[in-house]
């Protein structure tokens, strides 16, 4: 993970409700996020803030840069390619994965909703308990041609860049 420049250090810790579950095949995390499209060339201002047991570069005054580049239908088509993902026409979905070959089976669960307007995905609500591998597969299918996303930690009320959120799984 690359270091990002930080503008300010905040004094107010951010409430953190995410849980870590350690399984035989690695770490899974329980989370509730919103995934928003952003444009990589945009200047993002960050502050270092306490989020649970870590300090993360949180985005200041972030507003989404509009919809994802893919249509709702194209995004849905990519998501249903994930094994065992069930997608409803209203945008809701659920994805259950399990590794039955492990000594203790590892079960992963993601669920959420795609929110759209004018045929484009505006953002994705996502919650569940999964590994970094499952989350990166899901995000790749969700993003399509969209180059960059920003993650809103719903309970904490903050925005972080995707690579910061993914690095938190380590």
SSE arrangement, N to C: EEEEEHEEEEHEEH
Low-confidence stretches: 1-25
Query: How many beta strands in the DSSP annotation?
Result: 11
Number of helices in the DSSP assignment: 3
- The Rg value, from CA coordinates, equals 16 Å
Describe this structure in words.
By secondary structure, the protein is of the alpha+beta class. It has one domain (8-167). The chain contains 3 helices and 11 strands. It has helices spanning 72-79, 132-143, 162-167, and strands spanning 8-9, 19-23, 26-38, 45-51, 54-60, 85-87, 92-99, 106-117, 120-131, 148-153, 158-161. The strands form 2 sheets. Strands 2, 3, 6, 7, 8, 9, 10 and 11 form an 8-stranded antiparallel beta sheet that branches. Strand 10 and strand 11 (158-161) form a beta hairpin. Helix 1 (72-79) runs antiparallel to helix 2. The longest helix is centred in the C-terminal third of the chain and has 12 residues, at 132-143. The radius of gyration is 16 Å and the shape is globular. The chain starts with 7 loop residues before the first strand and ends with a helix. Mean pLDDT is 78; it is low at 1-25.
């Amino acid at each position: 993970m690359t270091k990002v420049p930080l503008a300010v250090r905040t004094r107010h810790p951010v409430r953190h409700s995410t849980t870590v579950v350690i399984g035989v095949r690695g770490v899974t995390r329980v989370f509730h996020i919103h995934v928003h499209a952003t444009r990589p060339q945009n200047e993002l201002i960050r502050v270092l803030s306490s989020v649970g047991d870590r300090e993360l570069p949180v985005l200041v005054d972030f507003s989404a840069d509009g919809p994802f580049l893919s249509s709702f239908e194209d995004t849905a088509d990519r998501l249903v390619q994930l094994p065992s993902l069930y997608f409803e026409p209203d945008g809701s979905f659920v994805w259950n994965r399990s590794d039955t070959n492990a000594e203790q089976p590892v079960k992963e669960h993601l669920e959420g909703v795609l929110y759209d307007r004018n045929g484009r995905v505006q953002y994705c609500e996502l919650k569940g308990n999964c590994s970094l591998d499952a989350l990166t597969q899901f995000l790749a299918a969700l993003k399509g041609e969209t180059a960059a996303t920003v993650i809103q930690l719903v309970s904490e009320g903050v925005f972080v860049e995707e690579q910061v959120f993914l690095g938190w799984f380590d």
